[in-house]
Amino acid sequence: FRTPDDAAQRTWQTTLMDRGYDVTEVRDRQYFNSIYFREPSNILYEIATDVPGFATDESVAALGQQLKLPPWLERSRAQIEQLLPQINA
Predict the structure, then answer these.
(1) How far apart are CA 56 and CA 62, in angstroms?
(2) pLDDT per position in the chain (89 positions), as tens?
(3) Can you tell me the distance from the alpha carbon of 3 to that of 12, in angstroms, rounded to the nearest whole number?
(4) Which of 18, 36, 44, 76 has its CB 3.0 to 4.6 Å from that of 24, i.e. a possible disulfide?
(5) Half-sphere exposure of 12 toward its Cβ, with a 13 Å CA cutoff?
(6) Which residues does 23 contact at the CB level (< 8 Å), separation at least 6?
(7) Cα–Cα dist 52/31, whole Å
(8) Cis ω on the peptide bond leading into residue 52 (within 30° of 0)?
(9) CA 57 → CA 21, 47, 69, 70, 78, distances in Å?
(10) Half-sphere exposure (CA, 13 Å, Cβ side) for 77?
């Protein structure tokens, strides 16, 4: 699921907690913020914000031309790139 911003996400977090769901703290995912909760059948749901968005570290025109990784995955870049299929544009 998605929300436009952090305030809307906090509203969802509070609403879900008030209804008895175990909701995570906000997780910074670099391009958006996420909260997670499980419903009674144990399915994991994510509610992510639209902001800051994917154009934070490259222009909209350049999106998808390079693999962008969050800082905590940069040390694994070589391993990750080896697992990805080659894409020829």
Answers:
(1) 11
(2) 999 999 999 999 999 999 999 999 999 999 999 999 999 999 999 999 999 998 888 899 998 888 999 889 999 999 999 999 987 76
(3) 9
(4) 36
(5) 23
(6) 13, 16, 17, 35, 36, 37
(7) 6
(8) yes
(9) 34, 22, 10, 10, 20
(10) 9
Q: How open is the CA angle 81-85-88, to the nearest 5 degrees?
A: 110
Q: Any residues with CB less than 8 A from the CB of 30 and at least 6 apart, and which? A: 56, 70, 71
Amino acid at 73: L
Which amino acid is located at 20 in the chain?
Answer: G
> Which domains are seen in the chain, by residue range?
2-83 (3.10.180.10)
